[in-house]
Amino acid sequence: MLGARDRPGWPPGEGTAAGLQGFAVDKTFLSSLRGILLETELALTFIIFICFTASISAYMAAPLLEFFITLAFLFLYATQYYKRLDRLNWPCLDFLRCVSAIIIFLVVSFAAVTSRDGAAIAAFVFGIILVSVLAFDAFKIYQTEMAPSATEGE
């Protein structure tokens, strides 16, 4: 059986390397407000996941799931890959991600603070901070992408 290196045309030529440029990271996005918000959400969800793992493991699924969803959005936006999937309404999906995460983290944070454990209280504090970051993110998405502009009504 032939391996990948035994195939004709190995090493890959310039055409193959050019195909990978679709996953090149846009550094201007990562330093923009949108990128910084996604990176902050990613860091806070990871911190909350660690806090819940240390205290109440029953609640650790929500931050872990939100971590992976935020990571996927960050990857799609940073690589500009979302432009290839033009059938989806990305601002609406991102807005719904923020709103659903706000609801989930409010419920989980207030449920966790009742345990009176130190790590659970830390998760509550970071959860409230994350909710405020997500609310700002949802506001900016609605303001820039979804709100009708003044020129559309005229």
UniProtKB/TrEMBL annotation:
Major location (coarse): membrane
TM helices/strands, residue ranges: 67-83, 95-113, 119-139
One GO CC term, this protein: membrane
Places the protein is found: Membrane
UniProt topology in membrane: Multi-pass membrane protein
Entry keyword set: Membrane, Transmembrane, Transmembrane helix
InterPro entries (UniProt xref): Marvel, MARVEL-CKLF_proteins
Domain MARVEL as annotated: residue spans: 29-146
Protein name: Interleukin 25
Species, as recorded: Loxodonta africana
Protein encoded by which gene: IL25
